[in-house]
Design a protein that fits this description.
Blueprint lengths: L36 H12 L22 H11 L1 E3 L4 E4 L7 H22 L3 E3 L4 E2 L14 H22 L15 E5 L6 H10 L7 E5 L4 H11 L6 E6 L6 H16 L8 E5 L4 H9 L3 E4 L13 H9 L4 H14 L9 H12 L7 E6 L7 H13 L16 E2 L11 H6 L4 E8 L10 E3 L2 E2 H18 L4 E6 L4 H21 L8 H28 L7 E2 H7 L6 H13 L4 E6 L2 E8 L5 H5 L1
The structure holds 6-O-phosphono-beta-D-fructofuranose.
The site of 6-O-phosphono-beta-D-fructofuranose has 14 residues, from loops.
């Protein structure tokens, strides 16, 4: 196999372009845009003098076959680039990402600028210009970094209050009023997005087999899903601590979950306020509701912490503490990683290395997806957690200068080796639109429990073999990968992983010049959903009028649209009617949903009060 010596290795100062522009099928291979070094430097210096260097650097590489293959060169590259955090026991291997020395040299000044910007952010600069907010999740794990004493006090007091409350609940000093158990046995967490994904990931990763309180999640406005959670609790609803988490305090899905759970409490004859806890911003709708109704406790969510970076705030720490997870260790892990990711020497900064790799692998424009494959069941939800952290942060239409850039980096994955029996086939041989991040956990199971299921081989050896085999097999087919290795899945390593990716996202956002801390695109969907519900109310009024007539007047979709004065909304009207009919809230007397023009509909029950109102 041809050895390509363009990748960064001690022996590879000069890039040799592979002379295989013609594929075996005889078609010309597409080469990625290549410019001379002078061109690249010109392009860089023309942008680097601006406060925000936005133009993506052209990434010089060939479509296929550009990665180092010689085993000794690869080993040198591995050793040369291996990052180690001794105290955390964390390794980062970027050797299977094929960035070149030249690329590194071009990126370094940009990375340095990004690190300065991250430093400013940590000092309290307005890093979210649209919303005029500071971005302070780094202060949560080291309050003395916060820019003023008021914030420091807020952070420390909240942490103390979380620890005390969790201790009191676990020791039954705080108990449910009418449970035969005499203490809380379950947590039901209601929240969505950043107000749920972190707690779910951490619960799956770290909760002990027999936690003091078990946790369940309602993270959607799916009535059947909510019913399922409540049904699973059964009589234990009486000993369930309900934590409602919403930074804004007004997210509809979370509000609906709360209303559904409150209804279940009423029906079970239980007093919700004695078992309800709110985590939200001061004076939000949720905060005011909890205060007025006298809920058991309220914990603050800070304006300067974004939802997707809130795992180390009350959002993540309270549920974790209630499950007996050592939250101080999580904070230590994150804080140690924060220190490491402030390093100015790029090779010594794992977050900068990740950002560099992402940029190389996805051409700085998200041209390839990031497949996250932890080889450990307990890390199953890491990719789901990262999906929001990365995609809500980086997936932006405009850059900070207002240019349309449609940036992003897609993330998916579950776990190995399970995924080897699902989609790895395509990764190895199919469309080449991804790079992989393997998460390797060295400790297979707690000491003293291992055994050999065949001579010399344990179950964990298989998992290890599967990871190494997949990494090699993918690389042999020019599929690049990063490997993050931790000793075990512990509160410290999980805290460190979260902090590592938070910082990598921040640095990468600077490299591509976007605001990582807002989410304007989500607002559009929320607004449109509100409009659908408003339309449904109008339809109901029209249908109600017709249904109260004697005799009842069934209406066609066109008639409804006319009476609502919105003929252009006929398709949405049809969908609303079909949904209502499927739920027995509208009766279709003629035609069927499969042939929309034939439908005549009315309401089974007319509400005269509505008409008089
Ligand atoms: O915590 P909140 O305000 O309920 O928001 C939940 C989620 O909704 C979003 O605002 C938009 O999806 C996320 O950024 C956030 O994590």
């Amino acid at each position: 196999m041809a050895s390509i010596s363009g990748v960064c290795s001690p022996s590879s100062a000069v890039r040799i372009r592979r002379s295989l522009p013609v594929s075996t099928s005889g078609h010309l291979r597409r080469l990625r845009p290549f410019r001379s070094v002078a061109d690249l430097n010109r392009s860089f210096s023309s942008t680097s003098s601006c406060s925000s260097s936005s133009a993506p650097l052209p990434v010089e590489k060939e479509e296929d076959g550009s990665v180092e293959k010689d085993p000794i060169n690869l080993w040198n590259r591995y050793v040369d680039w291996l990052y180690q955090h001794k105290e955390l026991g964390l390794l980062l291997d970027v050797s299977r990402i094929g960035f070149t020395d030249k690329f590194f040299d071009l990126m370094e000044p940009r990375l340095q600028k990004a690190l300065v910007a991250m430093q400013d952010l940590e000092k309290g600069a307005i890093a979210n210009p649209d919303e005029g907010r500071m971005v302070g999740h780094y202060w949560l794990r080291k309050s003395k970094l916060a820019p003023n004493s008021f914030l420091r006090l807020q952070i420390d007091n909240t942490l103390d209050a979380i620890c005390k409350f969790a201790d009191d609940v676990i020791s039954a000093k705080i108990k449910p009023p009418s449970s035969p158990a005499g203490h809380f046995t379950q947590v039901l967490s209601i929240g969505i997005g950043g107000s749920s994904l972190g707690p779910q990931f951490v619960a799956e990763a770290l909760a002990p087999d027999n936690p003091p309180l078990k946790i369940r999640f309602i993270d959607n406005t799916d009535p059947a899903g909510i019913d399922h959670q409540i049904a699973q609790l059964g009589p234990e609803l009486a000993s369930t601590l309900v934590i409602v988490i919403s930074k804004s305090g007004g997210t509809p899905e979370t509000r609906n979950g709360l209303l559904e759970v409150q209804k279940a409490f009423r029906e079970a004859g239980l007093e919700f306020s004695k078992q309800g806890v709110a985590i939200t911003q001061e004076n939000s709708l949720l905060d005011n509701t909890a205060r007025i109704e006298g809920w058991l406790a309220r914990f603050p969510m800070f304006d300067w912490v974004g939802g997707r970076t809130s795992e180390m705030s009350a959002v993540g720490l309270l549920p974790a503490a209630l499950q007996g997870i050592d939250i101080k260790e999580m904070l230590v892990g994150a804080s140690l990683m924060d220190e490491a990711t402030r390093m100015r020497v790029i090779k010594d900064n794992p977050a900068a290395l990740l950002a560099l790799c992402w940029y190389w692998a996805s051409d700085g424009i998200g041209s390839k997806d990031m497949v996250v494959l932890p080889y450990k069941d307990s890390l199953l939800l890491f990719s789901r957690y990262l999906q929001q952290l990365v995609m809500e942060s980086l997936g932006k239409e405009f850059d900070l200068d207002g240019n349309r850039v449609n940036q992003g980096l897609s993330v998916y994955g579950n776990k190995g080796s399970t995924d080897q029996h699902a989609y790895i086939q395509q990764l190895r041989e199919g469309v080449h639109n991804f790079f992989v991040t393997f998460i390797e956990v060295l400790r297979d199971r707690p000491p003293g429990h291992d055994w050999e299921l065949e001579p010399g081989v344990t179950c964990g050896d298989y998992l290890f073999g599967m990871l190494q085999g997949t990494r090699s097999a993918l690389y042999a087919n020019d599929r690049e990968s990063i490997t993050v290795t931790v000793q075990g899945v512990t509160p410290r390593s999980v805290g460190a992983l979260i902090a590592l990716y938070e910082r990598a996202v921040g640095i990468y956002a600077h490299l591509v010049n976007i605001n990582a801390y807002h989410q304007p695109g989500v607002e559009a969907g929320k607004k449109a959903a509100g409009e659908v519900l408003a339309l449904q109310k109008r339809i109901l009024t029209v249908l109600n009028e017709a249904s109260c007539k004697q005799p009842v007047e069934p209406l066609s979709l066109e008639e409804i649209a006319d009476r609502c004065h919105i003929p252009e909304e006929i398709e949405m009207i049809y969908k609303i009617i079909a949904h209502m009919a499927a739920n027995d809230r509208a009766l279709i007397v003629e035609g069927s949903c499969g042939s929309p023009r034939s439908i005549k509909v009315y309401l089974g029950e007319c509400n005269v009060d509505d008409l008089l109102a």
